[in-house]
């Protein structure tokens, strides 16, 4: 499900979808399934290994593998904390929930064998990056790159650039992929170029690169000035979020109010259910404060233990959208 909605009180395009990561095309070393990142190490995919302490590169001659771990920017390059399990004769796996990662959308990582050997991916693999140490690129040393924003036909963010039929190549770059200038190639269609991505909820900036020339989205009026005195277009990826108040079945009227609607006391009238009350709204990624108003009385969510004070000393329930 994917919609383009324009709110007069928002300065962004709003894309709404039921948020659930689907499996992307299998990139080297990982795949995304549901709400999880599955790291996969196949011994047969690697022929070169770097001995960490010396930096020497060795041919891999099937030495005795005692352990394999995932090591990357997301776990401070730990060699043993993210240990993998052997699931086949040559294959090791580790599954991590998407919430184990920060809001960044690409990280470099490697597989560490026996706490000492770094598996070297081929420079010809599609998701590799030259390893850098102290700002210097290391010779013949590569890291894998993991992306959690990726092209997907039924994704939740649709981008369209009309016209430019004579262009040879159009790239979509933005804060969702660290402004990568080559990864997200747009597809040519009859009236222009298009690409659909799967992205976590949040607000992002983006631009198109048409044959090397950066432009804003001419069909998106919502933009912010960048450091080059030009403009980046802005999108807001939202997620349908369900609020439930259990009990209070004898109440006549229950309202949902929060930071997402300026604490409006009338707008979101909750629907009565057998278990209590329910209301579903699309929310931007991030933290939201809320309360219920039961027959005129304000209460926090009794089934949500996460609460915070606001700037006026009130205690509110907290909803995190990721």
Entry keywords:
322 residues, mainly beta, seven-stranded antiparallel β-sheet, disordered N terminus, globular
What this model shows, in words?
- This protein is an all-beta fold.
- Helix content is 0%, strand content 51%.
- The chain contains no helices and 30 strands.
- The protein has strands at residues 3-5, 13-17, 30-33, 36-42, 48-51, 57-59, 68-72, 85-86, 91-97, 106-113, 117-120, 128-133, 136-147, 150-151, 157-162, 170-174, 187-189, 192-198, 202-210, 213-215, 223-225, 231-246, 254-258, 268-269, 271-272, 276-284, 286-294, 297-299, 307-309, 315-321.
- The strands form five sheets. Strands 1, 2, 16, 19, 20, 21, 22, 25 and 26 form a nine-stranded mixed beta sheet that branches. Strands 5, 6, 7, 10, 11, 12 and 13 form a seven-stranded antiparallel beta sheet that branches. Strands 23, 24, 27, 28, 29 and 30 form a six-stranded antiparallel beta sheet that branches.
- It is globular, with a radius of gyration of 24 Å.
- It starts with a strand and ends with a strand.
Share in helix: under 10%
- Name the shape in a single word: globular
Structural class: mainly beta
Number of strands: 30
Detail the topology: elements first, then pairings:
Blueprint: E1 3-5, E2 13-17, E3 30-33, E4 36-42, E5 48-51, E6 57-59, E7 68-72, E8 85-86, E9 91-97, E10 106-113, E11 117-120, E12 128-133, E13 136-147, E14 150-151, E15 157-162, E16 170-174, E17 187-189, E18 192-198, E19 202-210, E20 213-215, E21 223-225, E22 231-246, E23 254-258, E24 268-269, E25 271-272, E26 276-284, E27 286-294, E28 297-299, E29 307-309, E30 315-321
Parallel strand pairs: 2-22
Antiparallel strand pairs: 1-2, 3-4, 4-9, 5-6, 5-11, 7-10, 8-9, 10-11, 10-13, 12-13, 14-18, 15-18, 16-19, 17-18, 19-20, 19-22, 21-22, 22-26, 23-24, 23-27, 25-26, 27-28, 27-30, 29-30
